[in-house]
Specification:
single chain; 164 residues; mainly alpha; 72% helix; 0% strand; elongated
Length: 164
């Protein structure tokens, strides 16, 4: 199913986060000497985009989804993911996330995003009217207005390198 325009801004942010996850997975195992660079990039994404993204979901999308009883367990699961992911972003910001936990973080974030895209967003589009989706889209856009529009660029330690 095509993504409704009301949810596209969130899907674009999901793409940014998934790109980071793919790079972490491809770089693994990550050398200890590169950990600081990876932590910096994860923290930057968390501060520039994810904090506002999570707030938009929790204040706009999840309450709308709770209006449909079948989505309540999924929303609860996604909220638990947010709590765990916030801890990982905080660990990266404080430079306390361990090198072995970086891959686990990327896998959890990737899984979380796929749940939102494939389960929550798909089902919301099926259950909500066009008018409801339009209102949701306006609220999402308003809640994301403070998100950074700049793309987080990999640094020399976190950029993908060609396969040898």
């Amino acid at each position: 199913m095509l993504r409704d325009k009301s949810l596209i801004p969130l899907s674009h942010q999901h793409q940014h986060a998934l790109a980071l996850c793919v790079r972490i997975e491809r770089a693994s195992p990550i050398a200890g000497c590169d950990l600081e660079a990876w932590q910096s990039e994860v923290a930057q994404l968390g501060q520039m985009e994810i904090a506002i993204h999570f707030a938009a979901e929790e204040q706009v999308v999840f309450p709308a989804a709770r209006g449909f009883g079948e989505l309540v367990p999924l929303v609860e699961e996604l909220l638990a993911d947010h709590t765990a992911l916030r801890e990982s972003f905080a660990g990266a910001a404080s430079r306390t996330i361990a090198v072995e936990d970086l891959l686990k973080f990327a896998q959890r974030l990737s899984s979380h995003i796929r749940k939102e895209e494939r389960q929550l967003f798909e089902r919301m589009q099926q259950l909500m009217s066009q008018k409801e989706l339009g209102t949701l889209g306006e609220e999402v856009a308003d809640s994301l207005k403070d998100a950074a529009q700049a793309c987080v660029l990999p640094n020399s330690a976190t950029a993908l390198r060609p396969a040898r």
